[in-house]
Amino acid sequence: MTKRGSMSDSGEIWVIGEQRLGRLEEVSLELLSKGMALSQSMGVTLSAVLLGDEVEEIARELVFHGAEKVYLLEDARLRYYQSEAYARLLAGVIKEREPQVVLIGATEIGKELAPKVAAKLRTGLTAHCIDLYVGEVDAAPQLIHVVPGWGGNLVMHIICPQKRPQMATVKPGVLLKAARDENRKGKIIRVKPDIGDKDFSRIETLEMIEESPKGKPLESADIVVCGGWGMNALGDFSMLQELADILGGAIAGTRPATDKGWVDEDRMIGQSGKTVSPGLFVSLGASGAMHYTTGFMGSKVVLGVDQNPQAPIFQMADIGIVGDLREVLPCLIEELKKDRMPEKL
Amino acid sequence: MGLEILVCIKQVPHPDHFSEIQVDVGRGRVIGAGIPVIMNPLDRHALEEALRNKERFSGRITVIRMGRPRLQKAVEEALAMGADRAVLLYDTAFAGPDTLATAFTLFHAIQRLGKFDLIYCGNETVDSGTAQVGPQLAELLDIPQVSSVQEVSFVDEKSLEVRRAWEHGHMKVRLKLPTLLSVTRDINTPRLPTVQGIMGVPQKEVIIWNAEAIQAPLENVGLNGSSIYATGVHEFRAGRRREIMQGSTGEKVRRAVARLKELGAI
Amino acid sequence: MDFNLSREHEMLRDMVKEFANSELAPRALELDNKGEFFWEQVKRSGQLGLIGVINSKDYGGTAMGHLARMILIEEISRVYPPLGFLHQTGNLLMYAIETFGNDRQKEKYLPALCKGEKVSAFALTEASGGSDPANMQTEAALEPDGYVVNGRKSWITGVDPADVVGFVAKTGDKFGAFVVEKGTPGFEVTRREETIGLRSLPVNEFALTNCRLPKENLMGEEGRGLVCALTTIATIGRTGAAGVALGIARGCYEIALKFAKERLLYGKPIATLQAIQFMLTDMNVEIEAAKWLCYSTAWQLDQGKTSRDLAVDIARCKLYAVDVANRCAYKAVDIMGAYGLSPEYRVIGLLRDALELGVAAGSQEVMKVTIGATITR
To answer: Considering the entire predicted model, what is its pTM?
Structure first.
């Protein structure tokens, strides 16, 4: 698809909904909130696409969260994410209906599916955007894709001036979820997927196995306490867990912390791990390399603690404490405990 | 049996030195000169898996890289680890590509190299980290592809079963060769090159091709072949407050807690 | 003059650095505390092809040369000196067999030694003094079917774990170099010395009591034993000790430098204080000077010059590098204050290891005697 586009297109904005084993991924709802904002500023319809088997209820949820239309492709064989089938069907329905913007969650599946679809359509795709908005470039309106840049607080602005649809993936946990309103009305349009044996002859997902996560979920936590290599001085994460418990937050770690086994890999913050945007992000003993900071740059407030005054984390923090973790951490815990003590009357 | 395996590698700045990279905010340019470089960490895992396949089934491993010939650390390391030959794609026409243009460049080179049974990539690079080139290259080659591969088993000579991560667990996927696999750290522990491997590097073939050599249409590659491009580098949101607490440890902590309360963070 | 190392030497350094950082560093303190021999690390070293770098490919070596050996010993010793020192002592017999031994001896001993499956030791020193080898007492009496050896060697590194030991003994007034295998009747390890440094590498005394060795256990020609030993010790022992010293010096410097940049006093890193900068500068300058003394010597060995041609260079680089290592280690401990005395921060351990280098492969004073006598000839 090599349509030359402009911002005055009437093409729709599409969010590709993602469901796994009958459960809707939260990122789809986050994308819908952004989709609604864009559909307003661009004056076009917001729609969603959903593939799966017996997922009509999820399609309705997409409507309740802002989709004016939902293109629903159902088939028993689409129950699991199927690489070739999903990519071909999506590309097909995009070619047919010609949306101008397609948003996909940068989940494990989305990160594989989006580039395949973009390649089929010969169009542009930006990866893990942290924001999207309509701005001006060379006196013309353009959709600005904002992606993490090099180091600290820097971002790059990217545009896709000609190819359509312009595609973008957004990491879960970056955008706010759309509000749910059961009174919202939308159309569910069933599209019969023409799949055949050919779609499964070369590659087939045999099964999807769930492993239950332990501890307070990271993505939804309002406070995240993250430890890095500097926690080595304390030996393990027990004091960090104590701090997290007092604050009511979730624990996380950088790559060195997961390597040491102080925290599970699925709690790793960073470019190849999770992205979080909590109200408070506490960084302990992680010096602040770029591939780490992109994982929390959307946080409202950042507290950084490190023993090296030149550590890059202090460029990324709102409040910084330079000091030895072995002194600072117990002190911090004591100070916060004081708040918890009942008042003596 | 004999497998023809291709491993895509990228030479990237050493992550420990990322903070030294200068960014020209005004012109939106990154100045990477003088920063130590390494093979992208996940590409080492990709190469290791290829080496294990070759040890088991015999065959040949070709590594391919886009970049300048002047500094070839990644290629040298790959050859020292055991790759049989290397292909370097270098041309000013290849510069400034988005991921699809990169995939096209590799695609045209592969047309000249011939058929491969397996292509291995690292899931993503430490610098741009899009994880897009693998899936897009597979799409252009019209072969199946899986990302986030944690384990590869050969069911028979022509088919594989791979274990692939997703957020809440893993998936089992069956594939027929030829295929492209993008691997994660979990898949293996890459070997160190041995002294014998290092000494064998000068004898191995390194092919250097430009756009003409691979007959790459200029509208497919480089900046010309890109659909997206960067317009600038900016500070995100209002920027951070960067208040460094002063005094003794106790004083710093008390002040920090007070400020966090004032900011409504706790 | 091109002072750049070849691409292969740079690749070797990178590989050994990675090996040291990922496999040796995490266990260095623990291995030191245990005081046990580190077989696992030796085998890994062999797997990577690091042990046989001065041995020919015909017998499992990689023949990469003396400069390669210097670099790899340096990078290992930066993190875990005992393994670096074992390369020093372990390569002695490997070189002696390669240079003075016959094909049968090479085939019998070298392959397993190159792979790190077996280790060796080399014994010259006795109670009569390592600096005075001509006065040794150990005797190898010649009999029709072989030699009968009586004597005692002391202060020999690595005999206890060794599978094969090379030693020098007198037959009449001539010296012969011999090989004895562990388990040979009459060969017994009698003592392990308590050492202040390199604690996971045993230093032993062993006794030969009517130990019968067949004629094929003689290395090289009759009467050439002392020449064999002294050539070996100069070419391999002194350069190896120099490599260990370079590694220790750089390890101390890097740790102290990082500490100085992070440690705050009076609100600023101590690296901003001139006193600290001067100490780091002294270390920096001396390490660089020692490095080039050592590398140029090793390079000349690779060009084919003999240890006789290079007697002064070899003695000089060992003399200087070992002094530099001791000075750097002491300065590092000083810079780091109380942390410098804590084993966790490694520099005190590196200082203890540096102390062991003075008497390795000939004492510092013997180095001076060698140089002084030669330059005044």
So the answer is: 0.90
